[in-house]
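Listing S7. Sequence submitted for prediction.
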Amino acid sequence: MEADAVAQSLAFRIDSILYSLLVGRPTDAALQADGDEAGFAQWAAVVATVPPVLDPAWDEVSTSATDAVRSGVRATAIALRDASGAPVMSVEFGWTDPVEIVPGMPEFGVTVRAATRHDGVPLCTTRSPDAAGRLPNEQFVGSPGVRLARLFAALPAGFDDLERPPASDGERAFRLQYADADIHNGGFHQFYSNSSGNFAGQFPDFADRVGATAKSSLIRTANGMFDPLNLHDRNERIATLDTLPETAHERLDELTNSYYGIDEDLTGLLVGFIERSPDDFLC
């Protein structure tokens, strides 16, 4: 296996584990790493005592992994910075020799070996979200994806309560992004068949507020194939899908392809929407 290909595969693993840690999903991170309970414990202890950290740039992770692979070592440390750009902590990763189970796709056993707070970094206390699920404003930092993931993790109910109508703009923002991801994963047929489709009736108006007007327009068109009084009911939507004529299914496929072609950065639009009304989302 070529060293650069191995390094890129390794960098993706490290980046994915870091993302899960940074957005408060240690269980997801543990599923991607091996034998690193002590490392995770150090991470939890350190990250709670430093200012909120940013996710590192991909080039930084990639370069670190490439340098390690080319030099023949099986460990690297990634420095994490606060909002000012100052490094406040480091995370050390280790890994096993790559095994190429699928040609061209090296596999690793990656571990979080250690996490350390940098000398001179003042001790901080990490604030918790408030009772309404608003994220402490100092934690709304990093790339747009990390910002939203942190915000949504603060909500009292997320994936576990999609049957209930959203009660706040925070919940609407979460469901809008979740619905968008579901459409991109399996098209409008999947969206209306899943719980994310419960948000279909509210999707257009909220997407307009956010600025995703092209997506809202297509959703309105697709919603027109269903009884508006039962649009919130998953079983009713599935029953409708089962009885639609072939021409309607073809039309849904056309709308799906049109949706895929829309050049709207929903993540960026949501971050901008939150920044315009911070008191509704941040505390």
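Caption to Listing S7: primary sequence and predicted structure tokens for the chain studied. Residues 3-117 form one domain. The CA atoms of residues 1 and 102 lie 12 Å apart.
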